[in-house]
Fold this protein.
Amino acid sequence: MNNWRAVDFRAVDFRAVDFWVSNFRAIVFMALILLLCSQWATAAEQTGAAVDVAATTNINEDDAHTMATVLEGIGLHKAEAIVAYREQNGRFYLIEELTAVKGIGKSLVQRNADKIVLDNTAGAATAAVNSM
């Protein structure tokens, strides 16, 4: 006597299996996207911490690349103009003196007032701009 029963696969519901098989590529693609997004978010958090450390620039000492990186609306060309002006006319005593540099106006100076430092006196620089 045989205790083994024959399985009739016609009676088995394969809809769940069909879903996974037919959507395999989409499922793998979505898993890959989720993994990449999580890595991207982690990298963004790490670079955000690095930006907070260098949130100010000393316009009397820093190079053009540093100023262009930190200051909003000031690219490398304008930052080089700031350095050239500083080399010709000496140090800046007030950050409003930046308006003497070609291409830099009061609104640009006011927008970056909290990021500009004059010999590590950020508070005095911000107070001078607020009185403009």
In short: The CA atoms of residues 97 and 109 lie 9 Å apart. The beta strands are 57-58, 116-117.
